Amino acid sequence: MPRRPTSPTPETVRTGIVLAAFLGLVDIVFGGMQVDPTQVVPAAVGIFLIVAGVGTIAAAPFAWRGAPWARYVMIVLRLLSAMTGLPAFFIPGIPAGFVVAAAVGIVLAVLVAVLMLLNVRAPLRRGTRGDTRRPSDVRALDRWAAALLMPIGPAAVAVLRFVIPPHPIGESVAANPDSQRLVLAFGVVAILTLLPGAFAAVRLVRLYAPILSVWTAAFLIPGYLGMTALLATDAVAMAGTDLGMDPAMVTRLNAAVLALPSVDILLSIFILGHIAGVVLLGVAAYHERLMPRLVALLLTVSQPLHLTAVLLASPEPDLLAWGLTTLGMAYLA
What we know:
The chain has helices at 10-34, 43-64, 68-83, 96-117, 139-163, 169-175, 177-206, 210-226, 228-242, 247-259, 261-287, 293-312, 315-332. Helices cover 77% and strands 0% of the residues.
């Protein structure tokens, strides 16, 4: 009698595909309702939901027939769609129904990713009697989950840097508090995804350039850890505004927090670490041809471009810079 396979069954993957397609249909319906400017959700988010829903449903037949790329497309679209619900947890006045829907959407998106990644390399055909294929490597889930995180973190920072209020911080947050809440929401996403994405990138580079990967990790990992200080200062500015503090006092409080030695050290590590780390990552990718050399070159210059945009206080080049980092990490994934 043949031994029962221990790998996840194809039905598990099919369940994920069906659930993802259903969520795509929900996105189309809900996004169409929100295109009206008078609705709670911004019209741009509604349009994105429609696009994500159509893309998910279009990829479903290919995923059902076993195309891995289609499953990856569906997973990424579901996770990005779920991320649009994060501001509901931070912006006051959002109806409770929207908050619950956002929480359910995030849980279901993660469930879709898990179901579709459990057997990502296995075909969707039913096993036949006497099938002697080796069980799927259980480490594959960890590898693909980490790879998915690699572009999500920089993408979150790209949005964050584009909507971040300008200086003076107190006056800007008081004039547009919703932008600051978006900064905090996408900051949480960045904090939770940048570090595991960096670990995955370094582990990949280590296979081809072990020495350079050590230097990349020495800069990039501490750099992303230091980013927590930025989220803390953004939270201070938001909390002061919510308490009704004078905007000038909020600006002074924010400056005082930034001047604390512990915060100043973390920010210095962040600035040096994430810029140098991404440059080294791009150099390794270029040298070892881990991606098209043009993309590797764009990855290499992305964070120096980000630094230039910060010094010039220009959000558009900053959006482009982190977008290039996202592109490079997506290719590396």
